[in-house]
Design brief:
single chain; Rossmann fold; Arc Repressor Mutant, subunit A; 2 domains; four-stranded antiparallel sheet; 8 helices; 12 strands; two-component regulatory system; transcription; OmpR/PhoB-type_DNA-bd; Response regulator transcription factor
Length: about 240
């Protein structure tokens, strides 16, 4: 049974969300403020956190930062307003998804299940023949070990950033729309496309020499993005790894 921590200072919201998650088969704990949430997550690490952005004592952004210091933990952010700035801030501190209030509790349960499926895939390692590293230019990624590196240095990627980089490495030179990335990387048939935009920007900050002038992840105006795998340097063609 997966353990979910719901953090919201509105007892009505917490009660409704906890009730729907409980009926969906999850074990649920509730916290009403930031410091309590951090303490509970440390004492009993959850499998996922549903986290309100506006909290007393410590806002949701700081809570997210603190609970993620111990390792990757799936977070779904709740925002009281529909402002894109709020959504982007949540994604930039590492939230895996967000839901804008007022929201459908059933939709939230579906989002929780979706994020947990991705997180489960991220932590499982197949016992079959090991999958080879994917390589392009300075980048190397091992899908089953969930490791990625740039010029030999380990990259600290969130679950979604890793999945996005893996997709790009598997589809070099292919122009892909943000809608298709949302379907194939996030597994969503609907959602705010700014989610994709923010994650591409964060990924560029970790893999590009100059994120302001990206050479690996190019923008295809009017469509989406394309991963431009660098050509091998002279003498490198056919070199084994």
């Amino acid at each position: 049974m997966k353990h979910i921590l719901v953090v919201d200072d509105d007892p009505t919201v917490s009660e409704v969300v906890a009730g729907y998650l409980d009926r969906a088969g999850f074990s649920v704990d509730v916290a009403a403020d930031g410091p309590t949430a951090v303490a509970q997550a440390s004492a009993l690490p959850p499998d996922l956190v549903v986290l309100d952005l506006m909290l007393p004592g410590m806002d949701g952004l700081e809570v997210c930062r603190r609970i993620r210091t111990a390792g990757p933990l799936p977070v779904i952010m709740l925002t009281a307003r529909g402002d894109e700035e709020d959504r982007v801030l949540g994604l930039e501190v590492g939230a895996d998804d967000y839901v804008t209030k007022p929201f459908s509790p059933r939709e939230l349960v579906l989002r929780v299940e979706s994020v947990l499926r991705r997180a489960g895939a991220a932590t499982s390692v197949r016992a079959e023949q090991p999958e080879p590293w994917l390589r392009a230019g300075p980048l190397a990624l091992h899908p089953t070990a969930r490791r990625a590196a740039r010029d030999g240095a380990e990259l600290a990627l969130t679950i979604r950033e890793f999945d996005l980089l893996e997709f790009f490495l598997r589809h070099p030179g292919q122009a892909t729309s943000r809608e298709e990335l949302m379907q194939r990387v996030w597994g969503w048939e609907f959602g705010d496309l700014s989610t994709v935009t923010v994650h591409v920007r964060r990924l560029r900050e970790k893999v590009e020499d100059d994120p302001a002038q990206p050479r690996l992840i190019s923008t295809v105006w009017g469509l989406g993005y394309r991963f431009d795998a660098p050509l091998p340097q002279e003498g490198e063609a056919g070199r084994g790894h």
